[in-house]
Amino acid sequence: MRGYLKGILIGMAVFFILFGLIFLIASFSPDFQVSNLIIALVLFGIGGVFIGVVVYAEKKEASRPVHIEQKMEIKASDLVGGDKRTEELKCKNCSGPLSSKDLKITNMGVLVSCPYCGTAYAIEEAPKW
């Protein structure tokens, strides 16, 4: 329910309840009249109806499903962790530079064959954590 409409309804409820109090007090004066008591009860009822409308509208609005949409943009470069610099491979025996032609990928891992000293070995990569 919009704030201004809720304010108007509550204001009207307060208005009717206050006038109901005035008529209720007037009904207990020395010249007791039943009509003042009936008018007071009617005014209380009208004020109660306005309050009931506000409460009903608030409950109905609170039970309505709320759709929240969030958008997130992630670059592929952000997903790759660790150091992003390329590293030159060197033979662990003679420290000669190795190229991609000197590497062979098999089901056992990456095998290296050094063109300078002829050493063959498997590369074991240590975990990064």
Please explain how this structure is put together:
There is one protein chain. This protein is mainly alpha-helical. The protein has two domains: 3-62; 91-124, no CATH class. Helix content is 45%, strand content 10%. The chain has three helices and three strands. The protein has helices spanning 3-27, 34-62, 76-79, and strands spanning 103-106, 109-113, 120-123. It has a three-stranded antiparallel β-sheet with strand order 1-2-3, with no helix packed on it. Strand 2 and strand 3 (120-123) form a beta hairpin. Helix 1 (3-27) runs antiparallel to helix 2 (34-62). The longest helix has 29 residues, at 34-62. The protein starts with a helix and ends in a 6-residue tail after the last strand.
Which labels suit this protein?
single chain, 129 residues, mainly alpha, 3-stranded antiparallel β-sheet, 3 helices, rod-shaped
Short description:
The protein is mainly alpha-helical and 129 residues long.
Helix-strand layout with pairing:
Elements: H1 3-27, H2 34-62, H3 76-79, E1 103-106, E2 109-113, E3 120-123
Antiparallel strand pairs: 1-2, 2-3
Helix pairs in contact: 1-2
Q: How many strands, which pairing sense, and closed or not: the largest β-sheet?
A: 3 strands, antiparallel
Please state the structural category: mainly alpha
β-sheet strand percentage? 5-15%
Terminus-to-terminus distance = 55 Å
